[in-house]
Amino acid sequence: MQAITMTQTEVKTSQPTTQQSFLEIRDVSKTFVTSKGDFPILENINLTVNEGDFICLIGHSGCGKSTLLNMVAGFLSPTEGEVLLESQRIVDPGPDRMMVFQNYALLPWKSASDNVYLAVDAVSPKKPKAEKLQIVHDALAMVGLTEAANKRPAQLSGGMKQRVAIARALSICPKVLILDEPFGALDAITKEELQEELLKIWTDNQVTVLMITHDIDEALFLADRLVMMTNGPSATIGEVLEIPFARPRDRTRLMEDPKFYELRNYVLDFLFHRFAHDDD
Amino acid sequence: MTAQATRGVGRPQTNAIIDQVLKVLQRMIPPAIAIVLFLLVWQMFTSSPTANLPSPIKTVQETWELIIDPLYDNGGTDKGLFIQIWASLGRVAIGFTLAAIVGIGLGILTGASRLMHLALDPIFQVLRTVPPLAWLPISLAAFQQAQPSAIFVIFVTAVWPIIINTAEGVRQIPQDYNNVAKVLRLSKMQYFFTILLPASMPYIFTGLRIGIGLSWLAIVAAEMLIGGVGIGFFIWDAWNNSRISDIIIALLYIGIVGLMLDKLVNWAGSFVASADQK
Question: Residue A189 pLDDT more than 90?
Answer without folding.
Answer: no
